[in-house]
Design a protein that fits this description.
65% helix, two-stranded antiparallel ribbon, globular, transmembrane, 428 residues, 3-stranded mixed beta sheet, transmembrane helix, cell membrane, ABC_transp_permease, single chain
Length: 428
C-alpha cells in the first residue's frame, strides 16, 4: 500500500511524494494456514489411499475415480502452499499487493490437501459435496444479498433472521393452501417485506436504534411464528403444513457436464433464481442509476440530498426490497429443503448471512462467495462424520466464524462498511 506525504522546499513550494508502506497481513495469514496444515499432517498422519468419486448418478458422462496416495499428495501440496506463501511475502517486501488468483489458488489447494488427508482409506464424493454445499448456502446467499442492499442504503439489516422465519412460514402456509409453490414463493417475499417494512419504519421515520429494532423484530417473529405454528399448523397439519415443493429441473446437455453439471444445471427453481439474483444485484448496484442512488444515500446522504435524491424514501423502499429478497431465502427452507414448517427452523442462519455481508465487504459477489464458504464448511462437517476423521466435526463448524472474526478485526485487511450505515438522516 502507499500514502501521500508532503514536503516544503526552500522557496515555499509544496511537493507531494508517494511513501510506500509494506503490508505483510496476507503473507502472515497464508503462513499460519500452511503451518497448521503441516502440523496436522505431521502429528496426525494418515496412511493409505484417498479416493475421489467424480461421477454422479444423474450424469450421462461417467468419469473414473481418482485414487491418490494420501501421505505423498498432502506433503506435495504443503510444499506448494509454502511456495505460494513465499511468493506473497516477496510481493509484500516489494510493496506490491498479493493478487486475487494467488489467494484463490492457495485456498483451493489447501482445501484439497485437507480432503485428501480426511479421505484416507475412504471415499470423497466430489459432486455430492459440492451439490450439498450449494444447497446449504442458498438461503445464506439470499440473506446476504438482502443485507448488502440494506446496509448499502444506510440501514443495518439485523432482522434477516426474522425475514427468513416469516418467509418460511408464509411459503409453507400459502403453498399448502393453493398447492402451488410459486404462490408460496410470492408469500415468502411478502412476509420478508413486512418484517423489513417495520424495520424501515422504526429506523428511518422514528429514528430508533437500528440494531435494537432488528433484534426485537427477530424475537417478535420467532414468538409469532412459534405461536401460529402451535395454534394453526399443528391442529391442521395436513391442510396447512404440507406445502408443494419445487422439483429439480435438469437443463439438457449442461446438466450432464461432469462435476459442475449436477451442481449448477440440475437444481430447483429457487437455486436458478439465486444465480440470477446475484448477477442482477451486482450489475444493478454498480451499473445503474438505482445502484448509484442506493450507494449515495448509504455513503453520503447529505450530498445525495443536495442533488435532489430523496434520501429517506430511497432508504425505505430499498430496505423493503432487501426484505423481499431475504424472504426468498426463507422460502427455501419449506419449499425445497424441508417440506414442512417447524418452530425456529432457520436456526440462526440469518445472523450467519449478516456475517457473510461483513466478510464479503458489502459486495454482492463477495458476500455470496462468503455464504458459499459457510455452506461448504457445513456440508464438509457432515462428510467428516462419515469419514470418521480424527478432527471433531464441531471444529469445522467453528472455522467460518473464526475467519469472519479475523477479517472483521482487520487481520486479513481493513474492512470498512458504508459510511452512513446505521446512522439516521435528519434533513436540515
Amino acid at each position: 500500500m502507499s500514502a501521500l506525504a508532503a514536503s516544503t522546499a526552500d522557496d515555499g513550494t509544496i511537493h507531494l511524494a508517494t511513501v510506500k508502506v509494506r503490508s505483510f497481513k496476507v503473507p502472515i495469514v497464508l503462513g499460519v494456514v500452511t503451518v497448521l496444515l503441516a502440523a496436522l499432517f505431521l502429528f496426525v498422519p494418515r496412511s493409505g489411499e484417498s479416493t475421489f468419486r467424480l461421477r454422479d448418478a444423474s450424469s450421462a458422462i461417467a468419469l473414473p475415480d481418482v485414487v491418490l496416495n494420501t501421505a505423498l499428495t498432502t506433503w506435495v501440496i504443503v510444499v506448494l502452499l509454502a511456495l505460494l506463501t513465499a511468493y506473497s511475502a516477496w510481493l509484500a517486501w516489494n510493496y506490491e499487493r498479493t493478487p486475487l488468483w494467488l489467494t484463490v489458488a492457495f485456498g483451493s489447494f489447501g482445501v484439497f490437501a485437507f480432503l485428501v488427508w480426511a479421505g484416507a482409506g475412504g471415499l470423497v464424493p466430489v459432486s455430492s459435496l459440492l451439490v450439498g454445499a450449494v444447497s446449504l448456502s442458498v438461503p445464506l446467499v439470499f440473506g446476504a444479498l438482502g443485507g448488502v442492499i440494506g446496509e448499502r442504503a444506510g440501514v443495518v439489516n439485523v432482522a434477516i433472521e426474522g425475514q427468513f422465519l416469516l418467509g418460511a412460514f408464509s411459503a409453507a402456509l400459502l403453498s399448502s393452501i393453493t398447492q402451488n409453490p410459486f404462490v408460496g414463493l410470492i408469500g415468502a417475499m411478502i412476509g420478508g417485506t413486512l418484517v423489513a417494512f417495520v424495520l424501515a419504519a422504526f429506523a428511518i421515520k422514528y429514528l430508533v436504534e437500528q440494531v435494537i429494532v432488528g433484534v426485537v423484530l427477530n424475537v417478535l417473529v420467532t414468538g409469532l411464528t412459534g405461536f401460529l405454528y402451535g395454534a394453526l399448523l399443528v391442529p391442521n397439519e395436513t391442510e396447512l403444513n404440507r406445502p408443494v415443493v419445487f422439483e429439480r429441473i435438469k437443463i439438457p446437455v449442461l446438466g450432464d457436464i461432469p462435476i459442475l453439471g449436477p451442481v449448477l444445471f440440475n437444481q430447483t427453481f429457487i437455486v436458478y433464481l439465486m444465480f440470477i439474483a446475484v448477477a442482477v444485484v451486482s450489475w444493478g448496484l454498480y451499473r445503474t442509476r438505482w445502484g448509484l442512488r442506493l450507494r449515495a444515500v448509504g455513503e453520503h446522504p447529505q450530498a445525495a440530498d443536495t442533488v435532489g435524491i430523496r434520501v429517506n424514501p430511497t432508504r425505505f423502499w430499498n430496505v423493503s426490497l432487501a426484505g423481499a429478497i431475504a424472504g426468498i431465502g426463507g422460502a427455501y427452507f419449506t419449499l425445497v429443503s424441508v417440506p414442512q414448517f417447524g418452530k425456529e427452523m432457520t436456526a440462526g442462519l440469518g445472523f450467519i448471512a449478516l456475517a457473510a455481508v461483513i466478510f464479503g465487504r458489502w459486495d454482492p459477489i463477495r458476500a455470496s462467495l462468503a455464504a458459499l464458504l459457510f455452506g461448504f464448511v457445513t456440508n464438509l462437517q457432515n462428510l467428516l462424520t462419515v469419514l470418521r476423521t480424527p478432527i471433531p466435526s464441531e471444529f469445522m463448524l467453528m472455522l467460518p466464524y473464526v475467519v469472519t472474526i479475523l477479517a472483521v478485526a482487520g487481520f486479513a485487511g481493513q474492512i470498512k462498511g458504508p459510511a452512513a450505515a446505521g446512522k439516521p438522516y435528519i434533513k436540515g
